[in-house]
């Protein structure tokens, strides 16, 4: 279950323990090599085989060098693994924080945009209603004034036509009286 929830952490711990095992094994191999070499040198001294002492010591030194190299590589691997785990953890945390902040800002931006659009829509509706009301009032005033002027015009034309008819009738009557 731990490995499922924290796969990188479990992998890091396994790598560290594997490398620790390599280090301990190499150290014990070196101790064993030193002890075996000392015993072989003592045996060679007692048996008088001085020429093999050089070969025994050289082989032991080569084995120790190899084990030291293995230990050093294991130590480097431990630090590299731990460093990469720390780096991965920090990167993940920072990425999550940045993504959370981005999400919060985008949500806030969306909310502000919605509020501003609602305010704009409200003022647009109010302005359109004011325009419609003003246009209706002005149209009614213009139509009323037109109707009154048309009424006055119609009355003036009727009066004028009545005067004209009266004058025409008077002239025609005078003309008829004079000619008869």
Task: Explain this structure.
The protein has helices at 2-5, 7-47, 50-179. By secondary structure, the chain is an all-alpha fold. The protein starts with a helix and ends with a helix. The protein is 97% helix and 0% strand.
Per-chain topology:
Layout: H1 2-5, H2 7-47, H3 50-179
What is this entry, summarized?
With 180 residues, the chain is mostly helical. Helices cover 97% and strands 0% of the residues.
| Biggest beta-sheet profile | none
Q: Low-confidence segments, ≥5 residues, pLDDT <50?
A: none
Measured by DSSP, the beta-strand proportion falls in: under 5%
Span between termini: 137 Å
Rg, Å, rounded: 57 Å
Number of strands: 0
Please tell me the overall pLDDT. Answer: 88
Helical segment count: 3
Helix content: over 70%
Which series of helices and strands comes N to C?
A: HHH
Helical/strand content category: mainly alpha
Shape: rod-shaped
Characteristic terms for this protein:
180 residues; mainly alpha
